[in-house]
Specification:
The complex is a heterodimer of chains A (647) and B (84). Chain A is α+β, with helices and mostly antiparallel strands and 647 residues long. Chain A has 17 helices and 18 strands. In chain A, the strands form six sheets. In chain A, strands 1, 2, 3, 9, 10 and 11 form a six-stranded antiparallel β-sheet that branches. Chain A has a four-stranded antiparallel β-sheet with strand order 6-7-5-8, covered by helices on one side. The longest helix of chain A has 52 residues. Chain B has 84 residues and is mainly alpha-helical. Chain B contains four helices and no strands. In chain B, helix 2 packs antiparallel against helix 3. Classes of the chains: A alpha+beta (647), B mainly alpha (84).
């Protein structure tokens, strides 16, 4: 539980005749983490099995079709692998012919729409000019000017001074179309330049602009209707083939994965060798299954076993052993929280279980409100039933754990959406007749009560949170002691980890001395000095700079109180505002409800983020830095997790 | 000072002292919060940049980002000590 799964290094050697059944078994069992073979002198890298080209081509085709049809991966019922496999070729062809025609048509229509739009854009410049475009070119004695001129520019007067033989049209958009005799063209060009003439290309079409425009408009409409009906057809194809596409994609992925596997193996002319890692408890099963499938013609051996990568197995291998968590099912969802940081190394203690206890505990201590706990429990239970996939599942499960803790602390604190449930100091609580019971004397003249009113006993709670911090940090240091002991021996473990515990003791003795709980500060000073010497011996003079870190780490746990108080603050503010509106009566009651709902919705959202992040931070920064290295290699066994097909 | 003191009753002096302590507490939390914010903004920007490039860095980026949050916690502790 506190260690990653124990792994053995495993080696398979056999004749190439039995390579294929071996691969099949390894793939089905999905337990062997294969080490890639890098070419050395004698052995060479294996070649893929026959048929991989065809499968890859099919896979490519299938994926491009899936992409074209816009198939996203939904959660559907798996189909039989055998059935899919037998009809794969036929249906793939069927699908391809159905789709490729539509694909071609679609791109054709899209191109045409684009062209029509460009034309419309060009012609629109000339709208309002009643001249056929055919008549605008091909003259010997005439010159045609088409273009825009400065707004409000008057050219007719100038024109008539040059020649009387001209024809001028001005379009609806201000475009001019001017016909003049070719001999006057230079003078006219000069005149037009004065009016900031900007030439526009005359479209190479026949027909008058306005007629063409309406024609093209209708064309565009027909085309978009065609496209619409085509996408409707595509959707029907998609609905028909979706299951098949997903299933066969998976099937082909598996096939190519199997057939390409020899690329990781070492092979000679007749022999193959597969090198990898397997969890200890799977080894016997693996060995017998491989034997069954190949008539015992593959030699399976393991090195290391219990000792692989640990003390006796040689420490050099530590970094190479792939790491797989070994946690009970309840703790599993917490692995997501671990992965966010880093996977443990092989020799390290796997702290998932610590996080499983401390994370929800801290979250609950911070939030501690029955109302929010119930809302968030409902949300996470609903979310878990609706959203599938491993990530979502872990997220919601972690949230459920957190809010069970929140519910517990909510009952302890007697809070419901920021309202106190029990009356205190003359203020009535939400439940009439329930009064706070005074229990024992706290710190600084405060009285600890049930339910605990957090806002009334801040000092006591502050000290309590620091005690929680001391406990948590020292669990971390003890774990770190174990890790260092295993890796570097007793001396290093004491100087590295125990020294920090001694330092804490020194600080507390000094504090007690200052508060005159103990008569002298001398013992504190001595213990403190001892700790400093140990640290300097362990880490060198740099350790002096790190000395205050233990204090900041412990003080950091006061966020367990601080963040909770700010959450109460927001809730109380919302309640007060809506209460003020409520007492206005009439229409204000609606306003009060809106404030209440929106305010608590906001605070619920904050209640996931703030306590979540702070509880997480206490794990990552304050706790993990005491012992955790992380960065282990991820165990990624050869095989495939089937979703859409089943055997 | 004596003249001013004569004008104020003991209750008034006590009240203004409590008020000053409250202002001090507010300043402690507020200024420490600004400090945390300034420190976190740069780290946060860098962390977001890093983890868009490499998603595995999310956890480490988060840790780096929240380290200065301790500053505001110190402010909070001081505020409580002032109001005690």
């Amino acid at each position: 539980m506190l260690k990653p799964k124990r792994m053995s290094r495993v080696l398979f050697v056999g004749h190439k005749n039995v390579l294929e059944p071996t691969i099949d078994v390894l793939h089905d069992l999905h337990v062997v983490h294969i080490e890639e073979y890098t070419k050395e002198e004698y052995f060479s890298i294996g070649k893929p099995l026959a048929g991989v080209d065809q499968d890859s081509k099919r896979l490519l085709k299938l994926r491009s079709i899936a992409n074209f049809l816009g198939i996203k991966k939904p959660y559907i019922k798996p189909t039989s692998a055998e059935k899919t496999s037998s009809e794969l070729e036929e249906r793939l062809e069927e699908l391809e012919s159905a789709v490729s025609e539509k694909l071609r048509k679609k791109s054709e229509i899209e191109a045409e729409i684009k062209e029509t739009e460009t034309n419309i854009h060009e012609i629109r410049t000339f709208s309002g000019i009643p001249v056929n475009f055919d008549l605008c070119s091909g003259y010997e004695t005439l010159r045609v000017f088409a273009g825009t001129i400065k707004k409000g520019a008057e050219i007719e007067a100038g024109l008539s001074r040059i020649t009387t033989d001209y024809q001028l049209y001005v379009g609806a958009t201000g475009t001019v179309l001017l016909f003049v005799p070719a001999k006057d063209a230079d003078l006219v060009a000069e005149l037009l330049n004065g009016a900031l003439f900007n030439e526009v290309k005359i479209p190479a079409m026949s027909g008058a602009p306005d007629e063409l425009l309406s024609e093209l408009g209708t064309r565009r409409e027909t085309l978009s209707k065609d496209l619409e009906s085509l996408s409707y057809e595509i959707d029907s194809v998609k609905a028909l083939y979706e299951g098949f596409i997903l299933a066969s994609e998976e099937l082909l992925s598996i096939e190519t994965q199997k057939k390409e596997a020899p690329l990781f193996f070492a092979t000679s002319e007749h022999v193959f060798a597969i090198d990898g890692w397997v969890p200890d408890d799977e080894f016997e099963k693996l060995k017998s299954r491989v034997g069954e499938a190949t008539d015992n013609r593959v030699y399976v051996t393991r090195s290391g076993g219990e000792t692989a990568g640990t003390d006796e197995g040689g420490k050099a291998e530590d970094a190479n052993v792939p790491v797989e968590y070994d946690n009970p099912k309840v703790v599993k969802p917490m692995e997501a929280v671990m992965n966010l940081y880093a996977r443990p190394k092989y020799y390290e203690i796997d702290p998932t279980t610590f996080v499983f206890i401390a994370f929800p505990l801290f979250y609950g201590m911070i939030l501690g409100d029955i109302g929010y706990a119930l809302i968030l429990l409902a949300i996470s239970l609903y979310g878990r039933s609706k959203l599938h996939g491993e990530g979502w599942n872990s997220l919601f499960t972690v949230l459920i754990y957190c809010n069970i803790a929140t519910l517990f602390f909510g009952i302890l604190y007697g809070e419901f959406l920021g309202f106190p449930l029990a009356g205190t100091h003359g203020h009535p609580g939400l439940i009439p007749g329930w009064h706070t019971i005074e229990l024992i004397q706290g710190i600084g003249g405060e009285t600890i009560t049930y339910p605990v009113h957090r806002t009334h006993i801040v000092t006591t709670l502050l000290v309590l949170t620091l005690i929680v911090g001391v406990i948590h940090i020292n669990i971390g240091l003890i774990t770190g002691f174990q890790n260092v002991l295993k890796k570097h021996g007793m001396r290093a473990a004491i100087l590295d980890k125990i020294a920090w515990m001694v330092l804490q003791l020194g600080v507390f003795l000094l504090l007690f001395g200052m508060m005159e709980v103990i008569p002298s500060m001398l013992p504190g000073a001595v213990v403190f000095a001892l700790a400093v010497i140990m640290l300097i011996a362990g880490e060198g003079a740099v350790a002096v700079i790190e000395l205050p870190s233990i204090m900041t780490n412990i003080l950091s746990y006061s966020r367990l109180l601080a963040v909770g108080l700010s959450s109460i603050g927001i809730a109380t503010a919302v309640n007060t505002m809506s209460g003020m509106a409520w007492s206005g009566g009439g229409i204000y009651i609606v306003l009060a409800s809106i404030i209440f709902i929106l305010g608590h919705a906001l605070n619920t959202a904050l209640s996931i983020i703030a306590p979540g992040l702070h509880a997480l931070r206490l794990q990552y920064v304050e706790f993990f830095t005491k012992f955790y290295e992380g960065g282990g290699r991820i165990y990624d066994p050869f095989g495939y997790k089937r979703i859409y097909t089943e055997e | 000072m004596t003249i001013e003191l004569a004008g104020a009753s003991i209750e008034q002096i006590a009240a203004s002292q409590a008020g000053l302590a409250a202002i001090g507490a507010g300043l402690a939390v507020g200024l420490a919060g600004i400090g945390s914010g300034i420190a976190e903004k740069d780290i946060g920007a860098a962390a977001v940049g890093a983890f868009t490039e490499k998603e595995e860095l999310f956890g480490k980026g988060l840790i780096m980002t929240v380290i200065p949050e301790t500053i505001v916690i110190f402010g909070f502790v001081i505020a409580i000590m002032l109001l005690m």
